[in-house]
Amino acid sequence: MRKPRWGKSVTFFGTNGASTESPPGSEATPKAATPGRRRGRASTQVDEATTSTTPDDRGVVVCGSDRTMLRVVTELVGSGEQVTAVVNPASRHFERIGELGAQVMGVRVVSESILRRAGIDADGKKPSTARALVLLDADDVHNVHTALTAREMDPDLRIIVQMVNPRLGAQLHSLLGDCVVISGPSLAAPAFVADALEDDELTWLELGGRRMVAGPADLIREPVTVLADATSSATPDLLPASSTDPTGDVVLGLGMRNVWRRRDVRRTGWVMATRDVLDRRVRVIAAVMAGLVLIGTGLTHYIAGVPWWRALYLALGAVTSAGIEDDVFADAEPWAKVGGVIVQLTGIVLVALLTAVIVDSLIGARLSRVIGGVRGRPRNHVIVCGLGTVGARVLEILAERGVAVVGVEQDDEAPGVQTAHRLRIPVVMGDSSQEETLRSAGAHRAQAVLALTDGDITNLETAMVIRDLNDQARITMRMFDHDLAQRVERQLGLGSSRSVSMLVAPAIAAAVANRRSQTTVSAGRRVLLLTEVTVERDSVAVGKRLGELDEAGGLRVLARQDGAEWDWTPDFEQSLAEGVRIAVAGTRSGLARLLLATRAPHRPGRSGRIGP
């Protein structure tokens, strides 16, 4: 089963998660693409890669304390990097990181002096001992502060930052220059969505400064270019100049067409909210008050001899504590006056109880729970348990795909709750490990369930309850403990599990090594690669017209970047200069030829001969 991923091609991982490669070495012997089951199905694939730049034996400084830090250090040490880990000594991973072979510095606050001791010690004449800095703190503010400090210390340092807030991360690149921003939630969310939907036709990516999607033409809005005419899945026409049947094309566009969600999952809305506020307690109190009003109306009519409408008015005034007109009861019998006082006191108590019950319904149970719940009997939907940063991104992707979805969250201040309200997605407020909560979300009729809370035990309990309620549902758990995840999958058979840290670590390692990132899109039995390439100094491409790089059926130039902005309607007669970056789509052979034309010529150093 293909697992689509998201990530920006070069400087921003996390909105799509494309594969990272460094041709031409990796493209000399390409792996065979797995054909999709449906025409034009998009897929991604990761090949073994080598760095595309001159090897640099300087070290890497990594700052952090959580499980992502452990995974990243493992990945970097395994790839032969010299790692200096700056870790809070209170972290439970402190000793484990040292056992991996990294040089560990135990500090609670990362300061300029600490960074200098770790290897960021450029003095203007010689570069720093470290060539890259990786910042993995859970606090975005701390990461930004440390990144700005490091940039002042070494303007040429490569900085990789993990950010929770993707909008802040997108702005960080313009401030720091050579900086890669990685969003763990955005990188991991598509993998969870792929597990829930099982069969996915779309590949999301960021290319040329745009968030884009590749897939069948009938699903894509604002198409930019036709990637393949896949009318014949056996021999699709790649990068055609024109297409006779647009419905059979695989295209690259700016998003999905608007898809109406199936109306089998609806939010409660204000009508259902009013019904929930007027619960059984309110109805009982209202019934007692209505009974007193009827009795009071009858007694007032017969005792005081007033008309029925006036008697009803007087009874309502007594029961609701609005008061009784003294002139009416002035000449009444003593027992009638006592009865009126008793009715009035009873009304005061009932009004107080009614007020308390309504306030409890509106405030105690939270207005968000009442308005955002599930209406009707949802069926064949996806349930997302845990609406943190990862869950919020999953909701956005599922909503964009037009998938019926229900959220489950215990904390009404969680980021995903606000996202769900914005997208008009119903949310059940409660503990996802409780059967009653999952039943309210329609778990016994759901197609798939994603357990994405921050606790392994909660996710495990949720999966076990779901299996009891619906043994046909696809279950995917977010598991932080890799060993526990393996044992759960192997012994309990509760479904698949994923770890955000394990999805993020390879992207960070690729960013440290400055490997080029590319996305693979399949069309029938053939594949296309989408990536960004930089024209290097003294390369063959310098001085050529942009249009000369195009190859019919082999390579297509999509956009060009001279400065900070990307131009998606470039002048193909304009000459290429050193440092120009272009976004392209091409076959493996076409891309390999482009890389040969845009790379600087190899200048071998002095070679020696090993004697006998």
Question: Describe it for me?
Answer:
- The chain is α/β, with parallel strands linked by helices.
- It has 19 helices and 26 strands.
- Strands 1-8-7-6-3-4-5 form a seven-stranded parallel sheet, with helices on both faces. Strands 2-22-23-26-24-25 form a six-stranded antiparallel sheet, covered by helices on one side.
- Helix 16 (456-469) links the parallel strand 19 (448-451) and strand 20 (474-478).
- The longest helix has 31 residues, at 334-364.
How is the secondary structure organized here?
Layout: E1 12-13, E2 19-20, E3 59-63, H1 67-78, E4 83-87, H2 94-99, E5 103-106, H3 112-118, E6 130-135, H4 140-153, E7 158-162, H5 166-176, E8 179-182, H6 184-197, E9 203-207, E10 210-216, E11 220-229, E12 237-238, E13 249-256, E14 266-267, H7 269-277, H8 280-304, H9 308-319, H10 326-329, H11 334-364, H12 367-371, E15 374-375, E16 382-385, H13 389-400, E17 405-409, H14 415-423, E18 427-429, H15 435-440, E19 448-451, H16 456-469, E20 474-478, H17 482-492, E21 496-498, H18 500-512, E22 517-523, E23 526-534, E24 555-561, E25 566-567, E26 581-586, H19 588-598
Parallel strand pairs: 1-8, 3-4, 3-6, 4-5, 6-7, 7-8, 16-17, 16-19, 17-18, 19-20, 20-21
Antiparallel strand pairs: 2-22, 9-10, 10-13, 11-12, 11-13, 14-15, 22-23, 23-26, 24-25, 24-26
